[in-house]
Amino acid sequence: MQEHRHLLKTRLSNVLRTTSAHISELKGLGVVTVDDFLHYFPRAYRDQSEMCTISEMRVDKVNVVQGVLSKMFSRRTKTGKIMTMATLTDPTGNVNVMWFNQPHIQRMFRNGDELILTGKIKFDRAQITMMSPQYEVVRKKQLHTARLVPVYHERDKISSKWIREKIHPLLKGAQLLEDCMPGEMIEAEGLMSYGQAVRTVHDPKSEEDLQGARRRLAFDELFMLQFAALKRRYEFRKKAKDLGKKIVIDEDVSQRFYKEFGYELTGAQQRVISEISGDLTSPYPMMRLLQGDVGAGKTVVAAFGLVHAINSGFQAALMAPTEILARQHYESISKLLKPFGFNIQFLMGSLPEKQKKSIARQVSTGTVDLVIGTHALIQDGIQFKNLGLAVIDEQHRFGVKQRERLQEQGSPHVLSLSATPIPRTLTLVLYGDQDVSILDELPPGRQKIITRVVPEKKRSDAELWIADHIQKGRQIFVICPLIDESDVIEVKAVTTEFERLSNDVFANFRLGLLHGKLKSQEKEEVMNLFSKGEIDILVSTSVVEVGIDVPNATIMLIEGAERFGLSQLHQFRGRVGRGEYQSYCFLFTDSYGEESRKRLKSLEQNTDGFKLAEIDLAMRGPGEVYGVKQSGIPDLKMASLGDTDLIKRVRNAAADLVMKDPDLEFHQPLKTRLKQLEDQAAIA
């Protein structure tokens, strides 16, 4: 069997009867060997399994009908088009057939050939005609009609029809594919064999068979991800166990902390603090992701952990992705922890070299208790003497290697924060190596932000209404999708909009401009002026998504709202409504598509960020919502990240195997397959 498997590595140029141009196109799709071709799965299916007789054909559906061809001829129309006509006959009647500009059809078929045609019909002068139907000669095995027809990702010469014809003779090779999953797991989950699943997705006999095949292949995809994540977690804990990083949760310190905070904690905050306390006192380091909506109080929960880490004799660190956000954390946490007398330092790349060296020296000698900063915390030259807790804010904005640099500082407890609402199923896949806590409750007193989708015809009225609010002393955000004008995407560019508002609509007010191309110092200047109330209108790109807290800002105006995901729009909205005044979010859009309207209306109706994330995931898919490469979401071929039941079953199966055989010593085929996937990821 092992020798036969080598056949799977045969290059397609040696087994396919085709041109070098087609082989080159396949290579561009990453398809070089027989094995690659078998794993080039369909992206969709056309259900053409229901055949009808000619007498049963209907105008309102795609008809699949079998009959005998006759009366075939071609002629040129007055406009120069070649029209090929024929009649298809079955025992119940006949129907006219017409193809435009396909002269090869008359060369391919003869009167008397038995065909299956797929297409719609139309009535004209009491005549029924099939217009340009798909066609296939009746044979023992239909490939293009009269079944669930696979549809593939195409490229120039490589059409779905071409793939179906070329892959069909190779499908018997699917039986040579090794099934790397443990037999007992396959049996327990009621899964189809791997080879059968691969063959079935290319050649499904029924919808039921197809679903069984897709479930098996999806199970494998998700299992590889989950096992790898849980194995990382297992190895991290094994390596770091009993390193002496147990943090004492002192009740007196806790009560003092609550008193300094000055507000009553929400039930969700109390629950999460209890979960984190359990982690900090365990024999191995915490790896926990804390998700919470904008304003849910993640920073206070993190500060609770920081206080106890420092009080237990350890150093602590908080790393944020931008200087604006890092500085905000520094100011708020310094104020909250001031009564404890801790040495708290702020570190970012733009500080003078002398100051950075001074902080680095304090970090290495242990005289600094808490360092808050940007990725400057993980640069060469920063070595903590005794790091006990590392907090990483908006962790998805850092690379894996960047996050690991903090973990390597003596295996501290790691708490990651995220204000980006991610559905539970997606969290399990993306962050499977971490425990997850969710702050799903906002502090009392937070006002509901009134949200409205504003059509273009209402723009003038809205701008007059906004001007009135500015005259009353309020401030506003204007968010644009792009920095400069784009010929490709016709949406408001921030620079153009800034000029328009400055010279026209809001000429009497003070405007500021903020975008990613500004230098750090320039950004800081603009934000400080806005925070002090010296700018009335801040025209910005998405850099305001996190880290900006201006209680006097009461209006969020978003241009080209359809260009943003619901989670991102929700986060923009969370920048207002942080003070005593009623706040508003206006969504401007030029898109009148049904899906865009439906998405934006859901923002009007929902204030729960996690609910909105679920809606966006269902409507647009993870790749489009979060960006596959940007967020680390895997490019799954068969698995759906919305399949909650399967993801939970896979996770349980992976966790069970990690406990029984973490190094896969008794599951060598699976070990080999995981190594192959890791190598491919490293290459990618």
Mean pLDDT: 85
Q: Tell me how many strands there are.
A: 22
Q: Specify the helix fraction band.
A: 40-55%
What structural category characterises the helix and strand content? alpha/beta
Which architecture of the largest domain does the CATH hierarchy give at level 2?
Answer: 3-Layer(aba) Sandwich
Across the major sheet, the strand order is: 6-7-4-3-2-5-8
CATH topology of the largest domain: Rossmann fold
Please tell me how large the radius of gyration is: 31 Å
Query: Which superfamily, in CATH terms, is the homologous superfamily of the largest domain?
Result: P-loop containing nucleotide triphosphate hydrolases
Low-confidence stretches: 627-632
Quaternary structure type:
single chain
Total number of helical segments? 24
| Biggest beta-sheet profile | 7 strands, mixed
β-strand amount? 15-25%
Distance between the termini: 31 Å
CATH class of the largest domain: Alpha Beta
Q: What is the overall shape?
A: globular
Give your account of this protein's structure:
With 684 residues, the protein is an alpha/beta fold. The chain folds into five domains: 2-44 and 163-207, no CATH class; 50-146, OB fold (Dihydrolipoamide Acetyltransferase, E2P) (Beta Barrel), CATH 2.40.50.140; 216-241 and 639-683, no CATH class; 251-439, P-loop containing nucleotide triphosphate hydrolases (Rossmann fold, 3-Layer(aba) Sandwich); 450-606, 3-Layer(aba) Sandwich (Rossmann fold), CATH 3.40.50.300. 40% of the residues lie in helices and 18% in strands. It is built from 24 helices and 22 strands. The strands form four sheets. The protein has a seven-stranded mixed β-sheet, with no helix packed on it. Strands 12-13-11-14-15-10-16 form a seven-stranded parallel β-sheet, sandwiched between helices. Helix 19 links the parallel strand 21 and strand 22. Helix 15 (424-430) runs parallel beside helix 23 and helix 19 (566-573) packs antiparallel against helix 21. The longest helix has 34 residues, at 207-240. It is globular and about 95 Å long. Mean pLDDT is 85; it is low at 627-632.
